[in-house]
Design brief:
There is one protein chain. This protein has 384 residues and is an alpha/beta fold. It has 2 domains: 132 residues, Aspartate Aminotransferase, domain 1 (Alpha-Beta Complex), CATH 3.90.1150.10; 241 residues, Aspartate Aminotransferase, domain 2. The protein contains 13 helices and 12 strands. It is globular. The strands form 3 sheets. A 7-stranded mixed β-sheet has the order 2-8-7-6-5-3-4, sandwiched between helices. A 3-stranded antiparallel β-sheet has the order 9-10-12. The protein starts with a strand and ends with a helix. The structure holds pyridoxal-5'-phosphate (PLP). Pyridoxal-5'-phosphate binds next to helix 3.
């Protein structure tokens, strides 16, 4: 049986060049980047170079990047760190959306319990948050807007520049969860109207357990992890220099293969959709998310008349790994909060599967999957 991995929006295979960089450092001498002896200085050099290399590609100053443990920590810290810093400014209002990752939503819930007011904007049926809605939600006491660049469940790309312009005009901070954008959208943070952006390495063939938070130079920020003076006193704890070097390598590889990857992903997407339409008929499927403003490698598709869990189980039995949405919601029978927020009708909500492509996926795998999906559907679908 084949082993086909179509869940790259959840996590990605480690690129062999990334692994090589990390193994090299792990096999080398020990070193704490904070130690002043030569061992420490070598570790520090790995860390500094990693920060410089990532900063060059995302277009910011290295000092504006703080390494974290990943996207969740970056999202949590972006909100907490800025709100704590603005505590005495009387700013108690947060704007976000109901289609965010739980790393933002659950933190927003917590903040609400602590007395902050949260406006949850609803996306339209394509998953877009309109800049007009954001403008309409702004208040005198709004501290921060937090929205994702690319939705991890449907691939929809948000109008970040327009929303950022509205935030700037209002003097409100703008945090963007850029976890799914990194490596798939060219970023130039020095020009984007964004104050904070979250990243993680494991979505771009880097290691799990490391990410970064971009914190613009003049952005008020209060450290959340206290201890030593690491990360310019913004996040205490011995840094993982090998993982940082692996992260930098992954960012560079994504940058180098940007166009080529985009073309390959678009080809896989087109072949997949056309294949399903040919096998099942176009009225039997519905693509969830925006048709144009989307990343090609994420396809959320409703296979009408089937049930998500049954589909995923049957796909798994055929050696195809896909997902019902974000990793934290799958495994439970909960329907995707993103698709619910997009107000999709129940027949689309209950039959949605996310396929996400990446490194190593081939046209042959797509063709195999299309055939298997058709066979599975014939077997399980309630005739509609
Ligand atoms: C948009 C988005 N934000 C945040 C996260 C969390 O990132 P991490 O798994 O690195 O904590 C994810 C991962 O699923 C994501 O897709």
């Amino acid at each position: 049986m084949p082993n086909i991995y179509f869940d790259h929006a959840s996590t990605t295979p480690l690129h062999p060049d990334v692994l090589a960089v990390m193994v090299d450092i792990y096999q080398g001498p020990p070193g704490n980047p904070s130690s002043t002896h030569s061992f420490g200085r070598t570790a520090k050099r790995h860390l500094t170079q990693a920060r410089d290399r990532i900063a060059r590609i995302v277009g910011c100053h290295p000092s504006e990047l703080m390494f974290t443990s990943g996207g969740t920590e970056s999202d949590n810290t972006a909100l907490r760190g800025t709100l704590d810093a603005l505590r005495h400014a009387g700013k108690r209002h947060i704007i976000t959306s109901s289609a965010e990752h739980h790393a933002v939503l659950h933190m927003a819930n917590r903040l609400e319990e602590e007395g902050y007011e949260v406006t949850l904007l609803e996306p339209d049926e394509d998953g877009i948050i309109s800049p007009g809605k954001v403008r309409g939600a702004l208040r005198e006491d709004t501290a921060i807007i937090s929205l994702m660049y690319v939705n991890n469940e449907v691939g929809t790309i948000q109008p970040i520049e327009e929303i950022g312009a509205a935030a700037k005009e209002a003097g409100v901070l703008f945090h963007v969860d850029g976890v799914q954008a990194l490596g798939s959208i060219h970023l130039n943070l020095s020009e984007l109207p964004v104050d904070l952006m979250s990243f993680t390495a494991h979505k771009i063939n880097g290691p799990q357990g490391i990410g970064a938070l971009y914190i613009g130079k003049s952005v008020p920020f209060q450290p959340q992890i206290l201890g030593g003076s690491q990360e310019s006193k913004r996040r205490a704890g011995t840094e993982n220099a090998a993982a940082a070097a692996g992260f930098a390598k992954a960012v560079e590889l994504a940058n180098e293969h940007f166009e080529q990857k985009g073309r390959h992903m678009s080809l896989l997407r087109e072949t997949f959709i056309q294949g399903l339409e040919a096998e099942l008929g176009s009225s039997a499927i519905a693509i969830n998310g925006h048709k144009e403003r989307t990343l090609p490698h994420i396809i959320n598709i409703s296979l009408l008349g089937a049930d998500t869990e049954t589909l995923l189980m049957n796909l798994d039995m055929e050696g195809i790994a896909a997902s019902s949405g974000s990793a934290c919601t799958s495994g439970s029978l909960e329907r995707s909060h993103v698709l619910k927020a997009m107000s999709l009708p129940p027949e689309r909500l209950n039959s949605a599967v996310r396929f996400s492509f990446g490194l190593g996926n081939t046209l042959e795998e797509i063709e195999y999957a299309v055939k298997k999906i058709a066979t599975i559907l014939n077997r399980i679908r309630i005739k509609v």
